[in-house]
UniProtKB/TrEMBL annotation:
InterPro entries on file: Beta-lactam-related (IPR001466), Beta-lactam/transpept-like (IPR012338), Diverse_Enzym_Activities (IPR050789), TAT_signal (IPR006311)
Gene Ontology molecular function, alphabetical: hydrolase activity
Matching Gene3D superfamilies: DD-peptidase/beta-lactamase superfamily (3.40.710.10)
Entry protein name: Serine hydrolase
Pfam families from the UniProt entry: Beta-lactamase
Keywords: Hydrolase, Signal
Organism domain of life: Bacteria
Length: 332
């Protein structure tokens, strides 16, 4: 017999609510399920994490060593070096983004440097508009086999005027990293540990160094996928971490202003970060390594992939952009 404290109407309502709860949960999980379904055919994908607000709503490990072991983030390193440039300007170690190489780090310029390299600005370097012949792609082997990587870059012929079109080049960012090490008196590794590690929750491990001891500015940095996600959250949250400003807000604002355009993906490019029409700010590395943030939708994303296979804009990287612009944004 039903107790006097629980009427038939109340009982029925409780029963219906209980029956509805699984359905409501399934409805809430549907967008995340759509993301999982969308990655089933991506055979290069290793890990995918999506954070919405404070909650990680997708954490998928398809292949590779998992979320807690370091992955080579490849050219995502360029975006992190750009953040370190912002900290150096904020601390007065470099005057501003228009400071010239000849004024900031003259000893890096070799005697046989290409005419005009002394006038290259930090903005030319961080936007990959130095004008010098590329040291990525077919030019990468000559770059990393040189006895002095910085000198090698600065003796390449000019293919465009400085500040002109984007010439994607790892060597350009390597020069920027060498500038940062020179003006601060600290290695790029030390700068990353001091200025970025508080946000990622773990230290940075050593990576490739050139013959002069400069850490490679534009490639081969290693982070765990979980640390990559925390960096995405830092970008999403305007450089704030645990209630304090870890990265200069004015630098981030300037970073997200389009300065040039990738000739490959068509994406705009700011100070070291790609900018999508849908509102993402993206660090992109060879093979499909991605750190992405969408401030308006409160979304942060980290993706790792097979570093031994390319991720072209019309291929796998294009697939990843469809994932970001489609099922991932629908999570917001």
């Amino acid at each position: 017999m039903m107790s006097s404290g629980l009427s038939r109407r109340t009982f029925s309502g409780a029963l219906l609510t209980g029956l509805a709860a699984p359905a409501l949960a399934r409805a809430a999980d549907a967008p995340a399920d759509a993301v999982r379904d969308a990655i089933r055919h991506l055979d290069q994908l290793h890990t995918l994490q999506v954070q919405r607000g404070d909650a990680v709503v997708v954490a998928q490990v398809r292949r590779g060593p998992g979320l807690a072991r370091p992955a080579n983030i490849k050219s995502c390193s360029k975006s992190l070096v750009a953040l370190l440039l912002g900290t150096a300007i904020a601390r007065g170690e470099i005057g501003d983004v228009h400071a010239r190489l000849a004024d900031v780090a003259p000893r890096l310029i070799p005697g046989d440097a290409t005419a005009g390299v002394g006038d290259l600005t930090m903005e030319d370097l961080v936007t990959l508009r130095a004008g010098l012949a590329r040291t990525s792609g077919p030019g990468y082997g000559g770059f990393v086999s040189a006895s002095n990587w910085v000198s090698y870059v600065l003796t390449r012929p000019m293919e465009d005027q400085p500040g002109g079109r984007m010439l994607y080049s790892t060597g350009t960012t390597h020069v920027l990293g060498a500038v940062l090490a020179t003006v601060t008196g600290k290695s790029l590794l030390t700068l990353a540990r001091e200025r970025l590690a508080p946000a990622v929750g773990e230290t940075f491990g050593p990576w490739t160094q050139d013959p002069q001891g400069f850490y490679l500015g534009g490639n081969d940095m290693a982070l765990t996928p979980r640390a990559m996600l925390r960096l995405a959250v830092l970008m999403r949250d305007g450089g704030r971490h645990d209630g304090r400003e870890l990265l200069p807000a004015d630098w981030l604002k300037a970073s997200l202003t389009p300065r040039t355009q990738s000739p490959y993906s068509g994406l705009s490019y700011g100070y070291g970060w790609f900018l999508s029409p849908s509102g993402y700010v993206i660090a992109r590395g060879y093979g499909g390594q991605i750190i992405a943030a969408h401030a308006e939708r409160r979304i942060a994303v980290a993706i790792t992939s097979d570093t031994g296979r390319p991720a072209r804009s019309e291929g796998y990287f294009g697939d990843l952009m469809q994932l970001l612009d489609g099922p991932v944004l629908e999570l917001a």
